[in-house]
Amino acid sequence: MIDPRRLRVLRALADHGTVTAAGQALHLTPSAVSQQLAALEAECGQQLLRRWGRRVSLTPAGELMVVHANAVAAELERARATLAALDSGVRGMVRLASFASAITMVVAPAIASLRAGSPGVTLQVQDVEGHASIPLLLDGEVDLAITEEYRLSPRTDESRLTRFPLYVEPFDVVLPTAHRLAGASEVDIDELADDEWIAPKPGNPCRDVLMIVCANPEIRHVSDDFHAITTLVAAGEGVALVPRNAFTAVPGAVAVPLRGEPPLRRVFAAVRRGSADHPLLKTVLAALLDAAPGHANADRESRT
After folding, report:
1. Are 256 and 182 in contact (CB under 8 A)?
2. 210-242 pLDDT, tens per residue?
3. Going from the N-terminus, what domains does the chain have, and what CATH number goes with each?
4. 45 CB neighbour count, 10 Å cutoff
5. How far is Cα 304 from Cα 295, in angstroms, rounded to an integer?
6. 37 near 49, Cβ under 8 Å?
């Protein structure tokens, strides 16, 4: 018999790349992770890992078992959702991770709506950068994530998530009010080729957007906080590319639309596949969709 708890350990290794990181995600010691993986190999009768000293990687058999582990995890989520649906009332707490502007625009209004219409449902909110929320969701640290997508690279989590589009917003360029283009109705990105930029840190997808639309930008300052970025722009330290709803007015800075087809940030809610029918999550998702600005006209992709 294959122990599904050990499949979870294998998935964590595939997600995080090292025994130590997998242990941190699962709150286990590296020794415990190694023991669980060795036991799983014995249960499968196959070598699942290649080992070079302290380094490990998945064998073809290990990669195949990760696919099955994802399917098992989804079925367990469906089982929990089905059992929860037998309960006559919707009551409990949902842990949610979201980036700051989505908390302001969608999460806070949804909480107010839930308080009025479903007082037995509560949210526990974590403010995290958009690209950090999906790992928390897949690790089981939260039940629902609000995150962002730019379609800059193919999705790698198709079999593990169900997505619910919330809204779409363009990026605008943020300029000091003394900038030569601050009074323009639109700005061509090429007109800023000689400007210095204030950008998110490497690894943040918003920085990737800048690197694609602006060839070789000269980056002077870095921050993942768009309010901090805007205040640096207002201080005359450069220009920035900011999602429209993440811009907050600061004296000395102005947001100007980009000419042509600007890059877009698609914001969506995500749950682990199989859990979308859980009564608590259905209630929270409905509140989030209702709170989303213009959600009926947003990029209504089918659920995946």
Report:
1. yes
2. 998 988 899 999 999 999 999 999 999 999 999
3. 4-84 (1.10.10.10), 89-164+265-294 (3.40.190.10), 168-264 (3.40.190.10)
4. 7
5. 17
6. yes
